[in-house]
Amino acid sequence: MSRNIEVGVFIPVGKNGWIHSVNTPYTPGSFQHVLDVVQRSEALGFDFVLSPAIWRGRKGPSRHWMDSLESLTTTAALLQATSRIEIFGTVHMTVFPPATIAKMIATLDQIGAGRVGLNLVTGSSYLDLAHLGLWNDELNHDERYDMADEWVHLVKRLWTEEIVDHKGRFFATEAATMGPKPSRMPKLVNAGASPRGIKFAADNCDIAFISASDGPKFIATARQCKEAARAMGKPNLKTFGLVTVIPGETDAEAQARLDHFNAGVDRECLADIAAGYEQNRSAKALSEASLSLTGGEKQSCVMPGELVGSYETLARRLSVTALEGELDGLMLVVPDYIEDLAAIANRTLPLMERYGVSSLRSR
Ligand SMILES: Cc1cc2nc3c(=O)[nH]c(=O)nc-3n(C[C@H](O)[C@H](O)[C@H](O)COP(=O)(O)O)c2cc1C
User: Fold this and answer.
1) Of 313, 303, 312, nearest to 242 (Cα)?
2) What is the mean pLDDT of residues 71-78?
3) H/E stretch holding 117
4) What is the CATH number of the domain that holds 340?
5) Which among 6, 265, 305, 320 could bridge 213 via Cys, Cβ 3.0 to 4.6 Å?
6) How many domains are there within the chain?
7) Where is the Luciferase-like domain (predicted)?
8) What stretch of H or E contains 104?
C-alpha cells in the first residue's frame, strides 16, 4: 500500500488554538502570530492552510478563543503575504448571503492568483450564532444543509454564468451579474461529519474533512465517508483527516506534554462549548463530531484521537491513519505552531516514506 497525500495546517486564528487549557503554549490568536505561522508553513513545504470561522470566545480561566480573527479578512492578508501555499477561508452559510461571498471569493482569487479555497460550514452551536443574532430556530440540522445546497448552487452560478435570475426556497437574485469570474473554480471543502453533511460534501465540494486518527473507529469512519461518496456516484470526492499531534523527543516526553496540558484543562470552557450545543433545539441530531470539542467523558483538553509520541512514533501512526483510512490529505493541529510544525515537517513527514506515504518534500 502506498499513498501520496497533501498535508496542511489548521491555523490558530483563535487564542489557544484547539487546546482547552490554561497550560496551552503561546497561541495569542493575533494576526502577527498567524502570519508567522503561515509564512513558515509555506517555507516548510506544506500544501495548504485552513483558517476556521470563529465568532465567540469561551468562558473560563483560559479565555479560550476570546481573541480571534475573522476568517476571510485574514485569508485576504495571508494570500497577499504568500506566493505558493493554498489558503482556505471559512464561511458560515447561515451568516453570509451567497452573492456576497461569491464576490468576496472572486476578489480573493485575484489577490491570491488562484490559491484561495473555501470551507463551507452551517454551524450547530446555538451560542456561537446567537452571539451574532443569527441563530435560526426554524431550520433543524438537516434543513440547514438543504439551505446550504441552494447557497452553493447559487454561488457556482454567479461564478460561471453571465446573468443569474434565481428564485429558490431560501434565496433570490434578480438579473445578477458578477465579474470578475474566478480564474479557476475555487476548491470547496466541508467538514460535515453527519450523513447529511457528507452528502452535502459529495454533492457540492472537492474535499470532505473528517476527524482522523489511527484507532479502528476513526479508520472505519474515514472509509465509510469514502464509501458513501462512491455510493453517491462521487468517487472523486477527496477525504482529508484532521489530526491533533503532540510530538516530543521520546514517547514519554510527548505524553508528559499532554499531561501538562491536561493538568490545566479548562472545564468551564468545555462546559461552555457543551452549553452552546445543548441550547440547539435539534441537539439530539448533533453528530458526534460536533460534540468532540466538549471534552468527552475524560474531560480532555484536546479533541479525541490525538496522536502523542516521538517523531518516529508519529510517522508510523500518521501513516496508518492515512493508509488505512484511505485519506488523500491530512490537516494538522499542534500545540506549538512554531516549533512543532517545523519538527513535524523536517522529522516526521520524511520518515513516513518508510511506510509508503509521501508528502511535501518527497514529491
Ligand atoms: C476540519 C474541520 C473544520 C471545521 N471548521 C469549522 C469552522 O470553521 N467553524 C464552525 O463553526 N465549524 C467548523 N467545523 C465543524 C463542522 O462544520 C461540522 O459542523 C461538524 O463537523 C459536525 O458535522 P455536521 O454538521 O455534519 O453535524 C469544522 C470541522 C472540521 C472537522
Assistant:
1) 303
2) 98
3) strand 116-121
4) 3.20.20.30
5) 305
6) 1
7) 6-289
8) helix 98-111
Residue range 288-302, pLDDT digits in tens:
666 667 777 778 999
Asked if the model's pLDDT at residue 361 lies above 70, the reply is no
The three cell numbers of residue 101 are: 461571498
Ligand 1 atom at minimal distance to the Cα of residue 286: 27
d(CA 222, CA 118): 21
201 lines ligand 1 (CB under 6 A): no
Give the structural domain span for 285.
Answer: 3-362
Q: What is the Å distance from ligand 1's center to 1 Cα?
A: 30
**Ligand 1, from 6, 121, 291: best to mutate by most atoms within 8 Å of Cβ?**
121
Taking alpha carbons only, the member of 115, 124, 133 closest to residue 191 is 124
pLDDT grade for 362, boundaries at 50, 70 and 90 = very low
| Amino acid type, 269 | C
22 Cα: distance to centroid of ligand 1 (angstroms): 24
Query: Hey, what's the cell of 305?
Result: 484521537
For 268, the grid coordinates are 468551564
- Residue 121 CA to ligand 1 center (angstroms) comes to 6
